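Long-time lurker, first post. I've been practising inverse folding by hand and with some scripts of my own, and I keep getting stuck on stretches where the structure tokens seem ambiguous. Below is the full token string for one chain I'm working on. Before anyone asks, I'm not after the true native sequence, just a reasonable design that respects the backbone. If someone could post their per-position residues I'd love to compare against what I wrote down in my notebook.
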């Protein structure tokens, strides 16, 4: 099939590359000229495990193309995916200007029947607005489909190649048949297609993300309470998760959830609720708890240093909002660094993959170390903000040699408490206690 993808970010580029991988011809459109030029020259603009190899393979096979010209791509394709940003506006509502602008441009240029498939995360009713926008510009027939994306950053290629389900929100049988044909290589391997109306499909995406944000937040509260009552969250987590109605996933406590999706989507659903006169109290609480949780270790650091962080040198391991990505949107590391700087501390950070993105916003306010150990030179404490695997089994002897103080504040519960104790480190993690029997 010939496909256009509008927007080549995490969703668009990975969707485009994987659809090319299964044999389609894919035309990727972006307004960012530099990005498009780079991709034409083989530069992958984001970090996603497995993407680079697949990207080059499909360029070589002449199955994926890049352009800034929407019209050129539209003329060649029957199915048009929208993978455009829907960032939060000032009131938290999803900003639909990118999606509606492209809908408008499609209406202006479309010459024959198209299926417009929205992959962006959008509030209920957006498919209707896209339909109205296009219809106001043209008499050419078309259909609009809601097809929310559930990929996780860091596993985007794996998730796109092995989706848990494909949601198709459409009232048009013709469009549903085209989508079924497009996704047939996945249904073939047992992935269910769930057909529904556009509104239910749009809400499914917000409901799924908000539920996961609530699940994490609930566990963060349990972890905080564990500390009050002398329980260990790792054991509670295992005990709870073994009930398959609960499951083990997304029960890991830490310094809050971040990323480009959970914070934004919780806000957007809250805002949609308000517009309909519905008060999502659970989401209100989730948002507020997460804000506090993100910086919950800063007061601990202050206490450790007798109340002031003035002049203290704090090493931060990990800047990305989670491991295996260069994405720093709403990363807990940034909230912590901002607060540490406000409190007069100096920050030396280490994250090879996300460093460049942080430099763009923090510039010379902090310094960057070339490896995890040199970040510790004369550091008064270490704060771990991202669960990069390389932090799992560090060389404690080397750490002790480099640091002024043997103090670790671990926002991602990276290693067993026993390990820190054996190495005589002060070690504060989230909701755990040393079990000695
Ligand atoms: N990142 C994720 O993990 C993820 C997962 C599922 C769903 N989503 C949703 O998918 C959507 C896209 O997210 P993303 O993270 O890929 O965004 P992104 O910001 O990484 O990428 C968006 C791309 O769209 C381009 N763009 C903007 N206006 C354009 C226009 N008029 N024409 C062509 N290109 C244009 C931008 O230049 C950018 O390259 C959002 O609604 C998001 O909520 C994201
Ligand atoms: O047990 C857990 C699991 C995750 N997190 C945090 O939650 C955030 C989000 O993690 P994750 O869901 O793995 O990353 P995303 O790439 O943001 O993916 C989410 O958001 C995407 C965008 O909508 C959806 O497509 C995915 O299904 C959904 O998992 C990160 O800050 C993690 O550190 C925890 O604190 N504890």
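-- Answer (accepted) --
I ran through it position by position. Result:
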């Amino acid at each position: 099939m010939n496909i256009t993808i509008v927007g080549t970010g995490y969703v668009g580029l990975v969707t485009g590359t994987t659809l090319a991988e299964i044999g389609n011809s894919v035309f990727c459109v972006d307004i960012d000229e530099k990005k498009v030029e780079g991709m034409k020259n083989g530069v992958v603009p984001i970090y996603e495990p497995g993407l680079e190899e697949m990207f080059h393979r499909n360029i070589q096979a002449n199955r994926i193309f890049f352009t800034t010209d929407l019209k050129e791509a539209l003329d060649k394709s029957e199915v048009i995916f929208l993978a455009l940003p829907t960032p939060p506006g000032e009131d938290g509502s999803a900003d639909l200007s990118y999606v509606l602008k492209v809908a408008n441009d499609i209406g202006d240029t479309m010459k024959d029947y198209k299926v417009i498939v929205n992959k962006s995360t959008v509030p209920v009713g957006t498919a209707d607005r896209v339909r109205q926008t296009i219809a106001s510009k043209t008499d050419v027939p078309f259909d609009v489909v809601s097809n929310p994306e559930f990929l996780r950053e860091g596993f985007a290629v794996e998730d796109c190649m092995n989706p848990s389900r494909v949601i198709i929100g459409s009232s048009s049988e013709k469009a549903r048949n085209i989508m079924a044909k497009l996704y047939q290589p996945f249904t073939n391997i047992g992935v269910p297609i769930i057909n529904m109306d556009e509104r239910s499909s749009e809400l499914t995406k917000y409901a799924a993300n908000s539920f996961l944000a609530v699940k994490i937040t609930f566990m963060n509260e349990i972890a905080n309470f564990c500390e009050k009552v002398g329980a260990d969250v790792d054991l509670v987590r295992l005990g709870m998760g073994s009930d398959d109605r609960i499951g083990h996933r997304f029960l890991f406590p830490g310094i809050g959830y971040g990323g480009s999706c959970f914070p934004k989507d919780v806000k957007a659903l809250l805002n949609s609720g308000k517009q309909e006169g519905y008060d999502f109290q659970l989401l209100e609480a989730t948002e507020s708890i997460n804000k506090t949780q993100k910086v919950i270790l800063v007061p601990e650091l202050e206490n450790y240093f007798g109340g002031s962080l003035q002049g203290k040198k704090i090493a931060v391991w990990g800047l990305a909002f989670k491991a295996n990505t260069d994405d720093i949107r709403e990363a807990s590391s940034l909230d912590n660094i901002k607060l540490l700087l406000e409190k007069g501390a100096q920050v030396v950070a280490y994250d090879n993959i996300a460093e460049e993105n942080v430099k763009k916003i923090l510039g010379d306010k902090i310094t960057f170390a070339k490896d995890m150990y040199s970040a510790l030179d004369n550091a008064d404490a270490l704060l771990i903000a991202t669960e990069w695997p390389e932090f799992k089994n560090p060389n404690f002897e080397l750490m002790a040699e480099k640091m002024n103080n043997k103090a670790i504040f671990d926002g991602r519960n990276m290693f067993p408490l026993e390990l820190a104790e054996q190495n005589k480190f002060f070690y504060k993690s989230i909701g755990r206690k040393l079990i000695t029997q």
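A couple of notes from the structure itself: The chain has three domains: 2-196, 205-292, 295-428. The mean pLDDT is 96. Happy to go over any region you disagree with.
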